[in-house]
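Hi all, posting the design record for the shared folder.

TITLE: backbone redesign
STEP: 1 of 1
STRUCTURE INPUT:
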């Protein structure tokens, strides 16, 4: 039997240990919070996600917290329509993104 079986979700402590081992091997100092910021910036640039979608994924109570990730110059250069103006897709619209993250 494969030692990685049965498959189960990676909890926070296990993920942190993976990062610690990778950092030690690479001489880096990345954190899970760094990963969260990187993922957030990628979601913000995704034209299929509204700002409220990103807010929901991150669990932010206030949209102003999520808005801190917006860079107006990047949005304008990318020719994006107002991401803030798009409506929330709801749970079903985000299920694919959530399932990938879990």
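Okay, here is what came back for every position:
SEQUENCE:
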């Amino acid at each position: 039997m494969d030692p990685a079986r049965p498959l189960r979700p990676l909890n926070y402590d296990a993920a942190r240990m993976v990062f610690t081992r990778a950092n030690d091997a690479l001489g880096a100092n990345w954190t899970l919070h760094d990963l969260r910021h990187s993922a957030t910036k990628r979601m913000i640039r995704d034209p299929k996600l509204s700002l409220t979608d990103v807010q929901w994924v991150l669990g932010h109570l206030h949209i102003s917290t999520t808005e801190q990730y917006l860079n107006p110059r990047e949005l304008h250069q990318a020719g994006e329509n107002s991401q803030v103006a798009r409506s929330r897709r709801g749970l079903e619209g985000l299920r694919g993104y959530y399932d990938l993250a879990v």
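COMMENT: The chain is about 60% helix and 0% strand.
Let me know if anyone wants the other runs.
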